[in-house]
Write a structure and sequence with these properties.
Blueprint (H helix, E strand, L loop, with lengths): L16 E3 L3 E2 L15 E8 L11 H19 L3 E5 L10 H8 L7 E4 L8 H8 L5 E5 L2 E6 L13 H10 L5 E6 L18 H8 L4 E6 L8 E4 L2 E5 L14 E7 L4 E7 L12
Parallel strand pairs: 1-13, 2-13, 3-4, 4-5, 7-8, 8-9, 9-11
Antiparallel strand pairs: 3-12, 6-7, 10-11, 12-13
Helix pairs in contact: 4-5
Length: about 280
């Protein structure tokens, strides 16, 4: 399956959030060092949908490539953390410990995860593997992350737990920037998305009521590497790094928070596929 639907991309930008064009990894030599630039508060990567053990695919290559790409990203430009936004495995929760130990533990910076609909786990199993439950927060000083589960153990799409989401946002209300991480988007932008997204109007209303929620980060839809909006709130997708459908390339998304709280984000075409505008003269 190459695409599940048409997609919508808005040209409206929220003040303080800049959307840079996607880039190709390894496009040229880098002069950056591993030290984080002084004008950045935080720099992190988000990747999703590894789908390890999906039949007919090479999950070890997917994860091996991701770890190689992110290690190079850190060496060249510095990372503070990595987020894996759901579908770490493909209907094989028994392989989650292998994913963590063989691959994610090889990352040079802390890595945080949230379940997807193909992970088929409950809070207890997620905590046993990763050390935190399927709903958790990450505190990075001025910046907070709220990672909420959007599926049940059977893979059904669900709205985030309202009490958890509200308490987490209340706890972070003094922070200038909060990112909310949800694998399945809680909004359906197009009629044909009814079967693949979940409609959670109460979640959207809650997110809109906190001005410091600057973006919602989503995986799940492998064809999307764009930014959509509910009102002025950006919902940002990062395509996929595994699986057998979606964008022709595999990659991840970078976020950079500057000292003045400006947020830059761009998508990385890490696999260099497809090659664009190639010619032999």
């Amino acid at each position: 399956m190459n695409s599940r639907r048409k997609f919508l991309q808005s040209g409206v930008a929220l003040a303080g959030l800049n959307f840079l064009p996607s880039i190709n990894l390894f496009a040229g030599p880098s002069s950056a060092s591993i030290k984080k630039p002084a004008d950045l508060k935080l720099r992190f990567a988000v990747a999703s949908d590894g789908h390890y053990a999906q039949p007919g695919t090479d999950g070890d290559k997917f994860y091996g490539d991701l770890i190689k790409w992110l290690n190079k990203e850190h060496q060249d430009n510095h990372l503070d953390l990595v987020i894996i936004n759901g579908d770490l495995v493909h209907d094989r929760p028994d392989l989650l410990p292998k994913i963590k130990q063989t691959y994610l533990d090889k990352l040079p910076v802390p890595c945080y995860t949230v379940p997807g609909n193909h992970d088929h786990v409950d809070a207890a199993m997620w905590k046993a593997v990763f050390g935190y439950e399927d709903n958790h927060v990450v505190d990075k000083g001025d910046i907070g992350f709220v990672l909420a589960n959007t599926t049940d153990k059977m893979g059904k799409y669900i709205c985030p737990v309202p009490a958890f989401l509200k308490k987490s946002l209340d706890d972070f209300k003094s922070k200038p920037i909060v990112f909310v991480v949800l694998h399945v988007p809680p909004h359906q932008w197009l009629p044909e998305e009814k079967a693949n997204f979940v409609s959670c109007p109460d979640t959207i209303e809650l997110l809109h009521s906190y001005p410091n929620v600057k973006a919602v980060l989503h995986g799940h839809e492998h064809t999307l590497d764009v930014i959509r909006y509910t009102g002025k709130l950006p919902h940002i997708f990062d395509a996929h790094f595994g699986g057998n459908w979606g964008t022709a390339y595999k990659g991840y998304r970078i976020f950079e928070v500057s000292a003045d709280n400006t947020i830059n984000t761009y998508q990385v075409n890490a696999s260099q596929s497809p090659v664009v505008n190639s010619a032999k003269l």
